[in-house]
Amino acid sequence: MAEKKGFRAGIYAVLAVIVMAVVLVGLTIYAFTTRYTGFSPEKVAASYVDTIVQSGDGYNAYKNTLVSQNKKIKYGDFIRRAYMKAYVNEKDENGKDIPQADFVGTGSEEEQKAIDTVYDTMYKYYVKLLNKYGWDNYDEMYSRYFAKLVKVRKEVYGDDFMNMDYMFGALEANVAQYGNYLTGTDRKIASDNKTVLQEETVGKYQELFGKEQEVEADAIVDGKKQTVTETKLVYHLTTFVTSCTELSAEEVKDYAAAYKERVELLPAIAAQRAEDFGLEDTVKTKKVLFFTKEEHDNAKSDMIGAFEKLDCSEDITNVALVTTEVKTDDGTVVATLELFVVKVGDCWYVDNTNINTTGLYLAK
C-alpha cells in the first residue's frame, strides 16, 4: 500500500495550534450531537459506519460502541488502563523523572527529525496491523502497536521514557495520516499568505470514485495567496440506513447471554497479561510538609478492571439489527454492513464484539 506523500511531523506540529482550535469546537459539537444520536439505533449505526468509510477510521468509530459505555468506562480510559499503563515510564523507583533525550522540548530540527522517524516507522507498522488484524480486533491492534512504539522510540531517541501523551500522539497521527492517504489533502497556506504548509495530494478514494470537476482552491501565484480554479477529482460517499428491526424480548435475553459469553473470559486473560508484564498494585508513602500522603498505583487492577467493565450484559434492554449501505453520488453501492445495535440505559451502542467491518475498508 502506498504511503501518503509529503507527511512531515514538523509540519504536523506547526498546524497543531490551528488543529486544536478546530478540535475544541469539534468536541463541543461532537458531545452535543452524540448525546442525541445515541437515542436512535439508526443514527448510531450510520455514524459508526460513516466514521470508518470516510477515512478508514476504525479507531474513532469505537466511540459509538459498547467499549465506550458512559456508565462503566469511557473509551479513552479503557485504552489507558488496558493497554497503555503497562508501558508508562515517567518516574523511577525513587520518584525522579526518567531522563529523556537532550533534544526533547527544544523544537529543534533534531527533535523534528526524531518525531518524523518515529511517526513514519510506526505508520508503516500501523498499516500492516490494519491489513492483518483490522480494528474489529482492537486487542491485537493496541497490544502490538504500543509494544512496537516503545521499541521504536528507544531506538530513535535513545531513552527509556514513555507516557500516554506520546502514545496517543503517535497513534492519532498515524490514524490521521491513513485518512489523508485515502481522502487526499487540500493545499494549506500559512497566515503570511505565501508559505505553503501542506501540498495538495490525491487520495485513494479520489482515484477510485472521483470525477473531474472544476473547483476553487487556494494557491500561491506570483508569491501571494490567491483563489484559483483547478480541476480536481471530486467524490462523495454517503451512508444510508436501509432497515432497522428491533428484536423481541426473548431474543434480547438470548442476545445478552451470548454477549456475556463473548466477554466473560477477558478479565482472566487480562490477569495473565498483567502477570506477564509484572504489574502490581502498590502503595507508596510520601511526606508533604507535616503530612504523610499515600500514592496508589493500581496498574494490575486497572488492566483487569478495564475488561471487567466491558460486561454490561445485565444492562442490555433492547437490541436492533440495522442494515446500512454506502453509496456514491450516482447511486452505486460500494459497501453494505449489517450490525447489531444494543441499548444500555437510555443510549444505543454498536456491539463491536459481533461485527465484521472489513468490507468498509474500501481501499484494500
What this model shows, in words?
- The protein has 364 residues and is of the alpha+beta class.
- 45% of the residues lie in helices and 22% in strands.
- It has helices spanning 9-14, 16-37, 41-55, 58-61, 75-84, 109-132, 138-157, 164-183, 204-209, 249-263, 266-277, 299-308; strands spanning 188-189, 196-198, 211-221, 224-234, 238-246, 281-288, 291-298, 316-327, 333-344, 347-350.
- The strands form four sheets. It has a four-stranded antiparallel sheet. A two-stranded antiparallel ribbon has the order 1-2. It has a two-stranded antiparallel sheet with strand order 3-4.
- Strand 1 and strand 2 form a beta hairpin.
- Residues 1-35 have low confidence and may be disordered.
Broad shape: flat
Quick one: biggest sheet? 4 strands, antiparallel
> CA-to-CA gap between the ends?
8 Å
- Oligomeric state of the chains present here: single chain
Mean pLDDT: 89
- Largest sheet, order of strands side by side? 5-8-9-10
Rg calc = 23 Å
Tally of helical runs: 12
Query: What class would the helix/strand composition place it in?
Result: alpha+beta
The total strand number stands at 10
Helical residue percent? 40-55%
Residues in β-strands, percent? 15-25%
Following the backbone from N to C, one meets helices and strands in this order, namely: HHHHHHHHEEHEEEHHEEHEEE
List the helices and strands and how they pair.
Layout: H1 9-14, H2 16-37, H3 41-55, H4 58-61, H5 75-84, H6 109-132, H7 138-157, H8 164-183, E1 188-189, E2 196-198, H9 204-209, E3 211-221, E4 224-234, E5 238-246, H10 249-263, H11 266-277, E6 281-288, E7 291-298, H12 299-308, E8 316-327, E9 333-344, E10 347-350
Antiparallel strand pairs: 1-2, 3-4, 5-8, 6-7, 8-9, 9-10
Helix pairs in contact: 5-12, 6-7, 6-8, 11-12
